[in-house]
Each structure stands twice: as structure tokens, then as C-alpha cells.
Amino acid sequence: xxxxxxxxxxxxxxxxxxxxxxxxxxxxxxxxxxxxxxxxxxxxxxxxxxxxxxxxxxxxxxxxxxxxxxxxxxxxxxxxxxxxxxxxxxxxxxxxxxxxxxxxxxxxxxxxxxxxxxxxxxxxxxxxxxxxxxxxxxxxxxxxxxxxxxxxxxxxxxxxxxxxxxxxxxxxxxxxxxxxxxxxxxxxxxxxxxxxxxxxxxxxxxxxxxxxxxxxxxxxxxxxxxxxxxxxxxxxxxxxxxxxxxxxxxxxxxxxxxxxxxxxxxxxxxxxxxxxxx
Length: 278
Ligand SMILES: Nc1ncnc2c1ncn2[C@@H]1O[C@H](COP(=O)(O)OP(=O)(O)OP(=O)(O)O)[C@@H](O)[C@H]1O
Ligand SMILES: [Mg+2]
Fold this sequence. Notes:
The protein contains 13 helices and eight strands. It has helices at residues 24-37, 54-57, 66-70, 76-79, 93-97, 104-115, 134-142, 154-170, 186-204, 218-225, 230-233, 238-252, 263-275; strands at 11-16, 42-47, 81-84, 87-91, 123-128, 145-150, 176-180, 209-210.
């Protein structure tokens, strides 16, 4: 069972988009790195089982993932891969695909592993896959705060709205934040947020806040080719300033409701959702 942890519970933030290729991994990696630069301890959970995930973006090669934790071959600490100052990556990979089939002993192993991680974690960022599959929704439901990355394209806007609508069915919209990506400038990003807001007010009866936008910037792709976060590769560029601003916006959000935070809470919700019949 859980021991009393001397650490503050981390903020747990899921990053989704509906449509693929609009910048989830870019936002996850750079927000993690920007928070790391600001002195926070960050875990980045790669929950995207496809190819364009955080592990690939950071050029991390590791033979170990969560399945080795479950089989008892590795501890959680042994799985963690340093990714940037203050940031460690948790390789999800195939281990998470099999989560629905975990038995109770494995569930207990996983919860205990996250609960007894012997270091302070301030933020856990979860980079999920594209789409609105049950696995994506399960990860998002287990997070305390949810970021929806979108671009000013009809397909991205439609999918972001679709994702928000499904999440709104069983989750409060209060903790969903838009992150307009690849914006021409702040006004363009704000315009996109306002548009989605108008639609959610009209059809879902409530508004969705914006955390702040990220400009389109060719340095993002140059950094990616070097397998580095842009905030580290080109700290002076426009997108890096935007990511630091996003990190500050996250810091300013009020603390989690008591009882809704913590790694153990995240794992428990994740596993409960995976195990209950749809
Ligand atoms: N603000 C930006 N400026 C320029 N290029 C960007 C920006 N954001 C993302 N990109 C580029 O767009 C591409 C897709 O980004 P990314 O891999 O982060 O999307 P994704 O949503 O994680 O995709 P997937 O759904 O495949 O996981 C990458 O080549 C990335 O470098
Ligand atoms: Mg991705």
C-alpha cells in the first residue's frame, strides 16, 4: 500500500489534439523542457504508441519500457531516460498497449512503482496518440488537466472540437485548455481560440480556456532534426519564447483539488478505466 510520501503531488497534464500531426509531441517535449529550465522536475510519459512520439522526437533509444516494469525486470527509476535538464522520459511503448490485459498483481506493481518513486516530480506530462480512441480518452480522463493542441485548419478545428465534446461527456470542461499551434502571431492564435470557444459555448454550454499559443517557427523543425527541444536548441527564437510563456501559464494555474492529484491517483484512474467494461 502507499506509504506517506514526503513529496508534493505532481501536476498531471495530458496533451491531445484529435487530428494527428498538429504538434502534440512538439508541445509536450518543449513544455517539459521549458518547465525543466525553470527548475521543475518533469516526467514525460510517452503514451503515443505510434511512430511520431516523444521518444523518437528526443532521439532516445532504450530497450526498456513499462512492460519490463510489469515483468519485474526493471524498476521505474531504471526505466527513466534523461531527456533534457530536469526532464526524464518514461518509455510507454508496448507495455501500455497491453494495459487492458493486466492482472491485479501487475496493477499493484504499477501503482506501487509510481507511488514509491523516490524523487520529487513536479509535473507529469502525457503525450497521447492522435485520434479519440478509448486509450486516448482513458489517458486524458486520468489526467488532472488536459491540453488540446490545434491548428487553424478545418480538420484540426473539427477534431479538436470532437475531442472536447467527448471529454465533456464525463469530465468537467474546466480543466481543458486550448493550445493553438503554428499560429502566425498571438492575434491569430487568440482568434482561433475565440472561434472554438464560440462553438463550445453554443453547443456545449460552456467555454474552454486558452493556455496560450505557439507561433509557427522553422527553428522547431531544425531542432527536431537534431532530436532536441527547440527551447534548448534555439532559446532565442519565437517558438521558444512561446513555450516558456506556456510553462509560466501552467505554473500560474491553481493547485490541484485535494484528492485529484498525484502519480498514484493517475495510475489508479488509468487502470480503473482500462479494467472496467466500456
Ligand atoms: N510551431 C511549429 N512551427 C513549425 N513546425 C512545427 C510547429 N509545431 C510542430 N511543427 C512540426 O510539425 C510536425 C508535426 O508535429 P508533431 O510531431 O509535434 O505533431 P503530433 O501532433 O505529435 O503528431 P502525431 O499525431 O503524429 O503524434 C513536426 O515536423 C514538427 O516539427
Ligand atoms: Mg506525436
